[in-house]
Design brief:
With about 110 residues, the protein is mainly alpha-helical. The protein contains five helices and two strands, in the order E-E-H-H-H-H-H. It has one domain.
Length: about 110
Amino acid sequence: MTNPWRGDVALVINGERQIMRLTLGALASLEAELEVGSLVDLVERFESTAFSVADVLALLRAGLQGGGCALTPQDLANADIEGGPMGAARAAAELLARAFVVPDPA
């Protein structure tokens, strides 16, 4: 079950539901991998739609790592993601948003 207060986002990969979340460690790894100077730079990169497919995969990998999933980068790159590339991009955007926005209690 996903917990939006914890920043959880669900994504179905190879037919299995995975829970992703961006922990501080996952965010630090993501900053280093994407070579951004700060969390603000990272968010702006995605908000400006100047991101690449590699950026989306990096964000998903960080979220999966934070959620305890041990898919390798190669496994994720070759995975069947429910919703295809658009589903992956939507999940990545939701993951980033939930890391920095308190959910609506309604």
